[in-house]
Design brief:
Keywords: Signal, Transport. This is Sugar ABC transporter substrate-binding protein. Belongs to the bacterial solute-binding protein 1 family. The chain contains 18 helices and eleven strands. Helix 9 (202-212) packs across helix 17 (395-410). The chain is 44% helix and 13% strand. It has two domains: 3-143 and 314-378, 3-Layer(aba) Sandwich (D-Maltodextrin-Binding Protein, domain 2), CATH 3.40.190; 147-312 and 391-433, Periplasmic binding protein-like II (D-Maltodextrin-Binding Protein, domain 2, 3-Layer(aba) Sandwich). The chain has a five-stranded mixed sheet, with helices on both faces. It is of the alpha/beta class and 437 residues long.
Length: 437
């Protein structure tokens, strides 16, 4: 049996096993508690917020809960639980994971019409809970778009304005790299801080906002649930070329970026080793505390010369896992999480530890919950955000793209156009494998 056919057979068997034999998590099996997994570091402020959300749900519903916060190798640990027929009842995880989780048979379909409060949620957020088969496999919980968090004090020191174009952005990065913006007399600062490693597809994740913001894409809908790989489109190539230029010609990117994930990159920014960080709103409160509120500013990601709709859009969904012994509790938790009360708890006001970045419930006023006006930059960006397309499984597309993009950043001899042509060929084959071409 070929490796691919074996994988399909195993996934099908696993899905049948989970549905037939049940799962429900260790906690559910032993004490009746609804087990909720969230992709956050244990003991982090975000994990504490998740715990408060679960406690409020228990108080309102009477359903006991157990929160499990995991960060490293989250998907691998889910695989292990699935192999043991012991999935948790609920998982709060990235919107981009919906295809991967659905194709493995882990998810229970969500009836949007019967979910209390579902009519209060934005259509764009519901779109992120819909898989390539057109069915809804989650309840939207949190949304986000991207913006640039930058060192305001550095920009004022070098006497430059907020960048409005890619050319402006490159010039500011060059000044941050060469003009000693921290004033310590040493050559120890960079312009861009970039999570450019391949782990979990970070290089692709970061480049997405430049690609989308220049009118490019990874795949393009071609009708009837089919897609075409388009990473060799000139607009996508132009975006990746702009970033390679920062790594290789201008040398304005922090050292080690090609190996870094976001955990390391957050620390690079906090240590003052670089001053321009395209990222999500989830670190704003952290940087306000660690860097200083008067030292940082937030502004939109400039669109590229070819123009484009906006930055990457993503967030988290509440996934109801297949085989749970407490389907009523699953649904009740999803309804509480998307309610105005649940959303406000998850937002955590202006404090560090938000698990709801931008609320998806129309009854929640972001400005009333958060006093920091810099959040509005992210909210405004969300109106034009671009979610990953609903192919059956986005994860291998992101990973394959990350490998290719990382290659041209790590090896300056690589020709961007040639590598993006090769990437298009690989993504075309991946779409065929997923029966989505």
């Amino acid at each position: 049996m070929s490796r691919r056919l074996l994988g399909v057979a195993l996934a099908t068997t696993l899905a049948v096993t989970l549905t037939g034999c049940g799962s429900g998590g260790t906690s559910s099996a032993t004490d009746g508690a609804l087990e909720i997994w969230i992709r956050q570091a244990p003991d982090s402020e975000a994990a504490k917020t998740a715990q408060r959300l679960a406690e409020a749900f228990t108080k309102a519903s009477g359903v006991p809960t157990k929160v499990v916060a995991l960060f490293d190798d989250f998907e691998t640990k889910l695989q292990q639980q699935a192999a043991q027929r012991d999935l948790p009842d609920v998982v709060i995880n990235d919107t981009a994971q919906i295809g991967n989780m659905r194709t493995q048979g882990w998810l229970t379909e969500v009836d949007r019409a019967s979910l209390a409060g579902g009519d209060k949620l934005s259509d764009l957020a519901w779109k992120a809970a819909t898989a390539g088969d057109g069915k809804t496999w989650a309840a939207p919980f949190s949304a986000q778009a991207f913006a640039i968090i930058a060192r305001r004090d550095w920009r004022e020191k070098v006497g430059m304005d907020v960048p409005r174009t890619w050319e402006d952005l490159a010039a500011l990065a060059k000044a941050f790299t060469e003009k000693d913006p921290d004033g310590n007399g040493q050559d120890d600062t960079s312009g861009f801080v970039i999570p450019g490693g391949t782990k979990r597809g970070y290089a692709s994740w970061y480049a997405s906002s430049f690609i989308y913001g220049n009118g490019g894409d990874f795949v393009s809908p071609s009708g009837s649930g089919a897609f075409t790989a388009v990473t060799n489109d000139p607009k996508a190539v132009e975006a990746v070329q702009f970033l390679q230029d920062q790594f290789c010609d201008a040398k304005t990117v922090n050292p080690g970026a090609v190996s870094n994930d976001t955990t390391v990159t957050h620390e690079v920014f906090e240590k003052g080793q670089g001053g321009i960080y395209l990222t999500g709103p989830y670190v704003l409160a952290r940087f306000v505390e660690s860097v200083g509120t008067d030292k940082i500013e937030v502004y939109p990601v400039p669109q590229g010369p070819s123009g484009g709709p906006g930055t990457l859009g993503e967030g988290e969904n509440v996934y109801l896992m297949a085989g749970s012994r407490n389907t009523e509790g699953q649904k009740k938790f999803a309804e509480f999480a998307v309610s105005a009360e649940g959303q406000r708890i998850g937002m955590n006001k202006d404090a560090n530890g938000a698990i709801v970045r931008l609320p998806v419930n129309s009854e929640v006023d972001l400005a009333a919950e958060r006093q920091d006006p810099r959040w509005k930059v992210f909210q405004d960006a969300y109106a034009d955000a671009v979610y990953a397309h609903p192919v059956p499984n986005w994860a291998p597309i992101r990973q394959t793209s990350a490998d290719a993009i990382n290659t041209v950043w790590a090896d300056c001899a690589k020709d961007v156009k040639a590598e993006m042509d090769a990437l298009t060929t690989k993504l075309t084959q991946e779409l065929r494998n997923q029966k989505a071409s």
